[in-house]
Amino acid sequence: VDESTPPQTLKDRSLTSVAELIKNGGARRIVVITGAGLSTAAGIPDFRSPKTGLYHNLARLNLPYAECVFDISYFRENPLPFYMLAKELYPGKFSPTISHVFIALLANKGLLRMLFTQNIDCLERVAGVPGHRIVEAHGSFATQRCIDCMTEFPDKEMREHIERGAPALCVRPECRGLVKPDIVFFGEQLPSAFFENRSAPASADLLLVLGTSLSVQPFASLSIMAAEGVPRVLFNKEKVGDVGSRADDVLCLGDCDSGVRKLADELGWRDELEQMWRDL
Ligand code: APR
């Protein structure tokens, strides 16, 4: 299907017609955009959900305001709160959810054009989404470096420092700057991969939005870059952004794992999906 094919519209605004579109080959360049809501079922709190969200539970770090745990200028002054939080969030003790596996299944079927994630937990990779189909727009814990001279810091030693809650310092004796995982902090640029792939939603023939409040730019703008007439499906506990305002938008409100399972049922992929998840 070449990129000039006009988008096929949905019969009606239901997961049944989204499944129809996929089954009849009308969606082969699917762009998926995700946030922390995708990983809450894995045990990783999101940021803004009332009561459970991280930003409501950082009182123990007595920060001037919640977001500054991810603020680069605050980190320079006081890296301890981030290192304490990093210990709770560090990859290794969490497993992908059925929603992560659904995205990997789309990739296996050659239907995933690109996944843009805001998450730093690397669970998309663990679920089997190929690296070249993932844009980790807010970075991840996978690598780390000195924030002054950008020299990389060894993974093993970083894990030890995070375990101890002790900020790591640059390996270069003449520098000794603070070391930070390659997570995009407020005040930092997004990785170039985000800007290089930013046009992908414009050529998508289906957009799936899962588990994000669409409250942080420039990431949130991805959702409005889908062309008119291209269906946008929201799997989220609440309505967010402008999804729902276009004629072909489909709102699947509730927890994303149930929504994804419902779509898998409509597609006839449910057994394959559950088996893939069990085989992880
Ligand atoms: N199923 C569906 N939706 C869920 C679930 C779930 N199991 N759990 C939470 N949600 C929804 C919440 O209702 C909320 O709308 O997911 C959304 C999570 O929003 P945020 O907590 O704001 O997380 P996110 O959108 O990823 O935050 C964006 O903010 O702090 C920065 O850089 C950080 O990447 C993060 C960015």
Distance between the termini: 31 Å
H and E order: HEHHHEHEEHEHEEEHH
Number of helices: 9
Beta-strand portion reads 15-25%
Radius of gyration: 20 Å
Query: What is the average per-residue confidence, as pLDDT, rounded to a whole number?
Result: 95
* Structure class: alpha/beta
Helical content band: 25-40%
How many strands, which pairing sense, and closed or not: the largest β-sheet? 6 strands, parallel
Active site: 138
GO molecular function: histone deacetylase activity, NAD-dependent; metal ion binding; NAD+ binding
GO cellular component, one term: nucleus
Keywords: Coiled coil, Metal-binding, NAD, Transferase, Zinc
Structure keywords:
280 residues; alpha/beta; six-stranded parallel sheet; two-stranded antiparallel sheet; 8 strands; 15% strand; binds adenosine-5-diphosphoribose; histone deacetylase activity, NAD-dependent; NAD; transferase; coiled coil; zinc
